[in-house]
Specification:
CATH superfamily of the largest domain: Type I PLP-dependent aspartate aminotransferase-like (Major domain)
Shape: globular
Number of domains: 2
CATH class of the largest domain: Alpha Beta
Order of helices and strands: HEHHHEHEHHEHEHEEEHHHEEHEEEH
CATH topology of the largest domain: Aspartate Aminotransferase, domain 2
Helix content: 25-40%
Structural class: alpha/beta
Length: about 425
């Protein structure tokens, strides 16, 4: 696609955008700033306008029914999570039996490790990416230590070559092969939160299985962002949050995937709770945990209905648009953002602007991370003051997420205009 650095070009692209009208389905922050462009969907997605009505239904029925709302409300709370399963399964490319919404992200991964990290004295190592999200690193450290291993020995981090930002696919494959006899698990973020790099989960899962290891993924920055086919890729397990690209609200519940071959294995170790118990006998209150088949068998507690009602409203938007249309627009938006940043780098060479995100659209999500070494924090703060909302990560990275559901080409043009003004007028 041929891009142009003009407002007219951006407006023309937005007018021709087949899903551009969905921008009107979201609330945008009001910060009393001269500009307004929100590029922080990789941290917290915007609120769909339909959320308020969805939550109010459950508030009204709580008031009307009290405890009987579990069975007599419009959407009985007893089975409320089941409403979310079909659209969530479509987003991640799974069968409905393989997905359930529950708990929060790191809690869910710890629960899944109970089942899938089964180390032995000779096979205990975990391959992960360097500079993974800190919560995942802490999880791996404490899981290894819990099982009696030295985390520095058990965790193998694959990082980029010296002087580079991106991890080479062949280096992960080489690490799997080199540790084949000791490897218990490959565990990566589907999309690296820092660089926006999208990993080839299908190939990495296959490589893990070839050496007798399991493959699991943290999809916090992938679910609702990039096309996924977890069932067809033969992924063992995955977990993700719902408040980033899935727009379900701050700190809302997450979801898990468990491949059906494991979901039907009732001998697989897991922690039990009454919501994961056979629902036909759940209220008999008897001893003896009998897990439900599929991913639902990993549930512990009854669901947070108010939060899930917000999630239900958001997932309805995804169902209306579809991941193929979102991905197509995502590649065009990140392409325009890349073009805009390259223009700034050429216009202001002393600013030392560079991309650390893959330039191949097939290898990135809806994110461009830029390095502006030397004055990046001041530029970022000034950018926020102008109403262009993104994210800063140490030591020198600004992460920008042009989310296709609600961001526009004009937003990208606004980013470029604001950044140009700041680069031109700041020392």
């Amino acid at each position: 696609m041929e891009y142009e650095p003009t407002l007219g070009f951006a407006k023309a692209q937005d007018q021709a955008d087949p899903i551009g009208s969905y921008r009107d389905h979201f609330h945008f922050p009001q910060l009393n700033t001269p500009e307004m462009a929100y590029f922080s969907g990789h941290s917290l997605g915007l609120q769909p306008r339909s959320v308020r009505a969805s939550v109010e239904v459950e508030l009204e029925e709580w008031a009307k029914y009290g405890v009987e709302g579990h069975f007599h409300s419009t959407h009985p709370w007893y089975s409320y999570h089941e409403l979310l399963t079909p659209p969530m399964a479509r987003i991640v490319g799974a069968r409905e039996s393989e997905v359930v919404c529950m708990n929060s992200l790191t809690t869910n991964i710890h629960l899944l490790f109970v089942s899938f990290y089964r180390p032995t004295a000779s096979r205990y190592k975990i391959i992960s990416e360097a500079r993974m999200f800190p919560s995942d690193r802490y999880l791996l450290e404490t899981q290894a230590a819990f099982h009696g291993f030295d985390p520095d020995d058990a965790i193998i981090e694959v990082g980029p070559p010296e002087g580079e930002w991106l991890i080479r696919h062949e280096d992960i494959l080489a690490a799997i092969e080199q540790n084949a006899d000791e490897l218990a698990m490959v565990f990566l973020g589907g999309v690296n939160y820092f660089t926006g790099q999208l990993f080839d989960m299908k190939a990495l899962t296959q490589a893990a299985h070839q050496v007798g290891a399991v493959a699991g993924y943290d999809l916090a920055h992938a679910a609702g962002n990039v096309p996924l086919a977890l069932h067809d890729w033969d992924v063992d397990f995955a977990a993700w949050c719902s408040y980033k690209y899935l727009n379900s609200g701050p700190g809302n519940a997450g979801a898990i995937f468990v491949h059906e071959r494991h979901g039907e294995d009732f001998d697989l170790p897991r922690f039990g709770g009454w919501w994961g118990h056979d629902k036909d006998t759940r209220f008999q209150m008897k001893s003896g945990f009998q897990p439900m088949p599929g991913a639902e068998g990993w549930q512990l507690s009854n669901v947070p209905v108010l939060g899930m009602s917000a999630m239900k409203a958001s997932l309805a938007v995804f169902d209306a648009v579809g991941m193929p249309a979102l991905r197509e627009k995502s590649e065009r938006l990140t392409g325009y953002l890349e073009y805009t940043i390259d223009g700034l780098a050429g216009e202001f060479p002393d600013a030392r602007i560079s991309l650390i995100t893959p330039r191949d659209p097939a290898r990135r999500g809806s994110q461009i991370s830029i390095n502006i070494a030397g004055r990046e924090r001041r530029l970022f703060d000034d950018m926020i003051a102008r109403g262009v909302i993104a994210d800063f990560r140490e030591p020198c990275i600004i992460r920008i997420a042009p989310v296709p559901l609600y961001n526009s080409f004009e937003d990208v043009f606004t980013f470029g205009r604001v950044m140009r003004d700041l680069l031109r007028n700041s020392p």
